[in-house]
Input
Amino acid sequence: MYEPKNTAAALSRSGPDGSLTERNYWSYTGPEGATDVVANYGPPVVADGRLVVHLMAWYSQGDEQSVVGELLALDGESWTVEWRQGTVRGGPVSPVVADGTLSVAGTDQDRAYVFAVDAATGDVVWQSQTAGLCCHTPVTADRVAAVSAGAVDVFDRHSGDRLGAATSPDWELNPAPHQCLAGNAVVTSGPGGIRRLQG
Output
């Protein structure tokens, strides 16, 4: 059952008529004493048997209001939290998993980054600053792309080294264009059309 404010649920095909029934339920409740918790979840991914999700949440503690963003992993069977990574703020966006590493866009100290996170431990393997906040990080065997409004950054997937970048105020890219990697080219689509950027 889906409750968009602060709910995540796993569904299994176990009903007698083939319908989906709720099997697991987990929601962000905030720190001890938190009230009025509202959480927004990015699309989850499965990495090495863990359910990984990027979330942003708002809550109150007394007269104080706070906002938090984090990447976290739930055990695939018990749905207990295995790790939390609070460095990866911003979002919520969906991480991309490849070879046990999660690539995800986020912020740290009000700057935009692409992060590589170990799916088993939640440790940050590397982080590289991007031109702006992006909402998706397509990957290939060797590259990670970050496309933001009017800018493209491409990084080595293993080291985080910048392999190329391009910016243009004339691009009609919205803050969350669609993109994919095709070999050494980045293909984007947005209000201005489809572009292929060759590196």
User: Anything to note?
Assistant: DSSP finds no helices and 17 strands in the chain. Residues 78 and 139 are 30 Å apart (CA to CA). The two ends are 44 Å apart (CA to CA). The longest strand covers residues 50-61.
